[in-house]
Write a structure and sequence with these properties.
Blueprint: H1 2-16, H2 22-38, H3 43-67, H4 71-97, H5 100-109, H6 114-144, H7 150-181
Helix pairs in contact: 1-4, 2-4, 3-4, 5-6, 6-7
Amino acid sequence: MLRLLTAITVISLSGFLTWELWPVQVLMMTTFWAAALMHGARLDRMLRRLVVFLPFVLGVGLGVPVTQHGEWAWQWSLTILCRSMVAFFAGIWLIHVLPFPELLIALRRAGVPPVFIASLAFMHRYSVVLWEELARLKTARKARSSRLSWWRTWTTSASMIGELLIRAWDRAERVHRAMLARGGAKI
């Protein structure tokens, strides 16, 4: 419970800090980064996750100076970046110090609604199925294509994500029907 509260507190505190206190943001970010590394996070995996996370943050952050004018717009943009990085590294740290079953228990003790906790548990349980489906799609793509240009690789990956979402939706429908057939209540 303490680890979860620590992450939530630091992320919330980061959200309240003003632009002038950016060194504190950087200190919180590097502290969680170092703590995650000390608790077994691998640097290469952390960087890969960061590469996926950063385009979204940069898109939101750069949206402020593009739509607004003035020096404060760039300050807001950098503030968004700093806050997001603190939350990212706090999340990475939390993943490594709090196993998922303990997270569910901590959330239950914190008074989180049971429907949310059950949804998280189902999400965790079915993520393995999703990764297996993704592996099948990657194998099929590799079998059908040889060396692709970066543009073709990108478009193929985008369509693969769409196909994965469709397959996940279909599987969710089948699981729902199976639960109803076994006497589950309709939501």
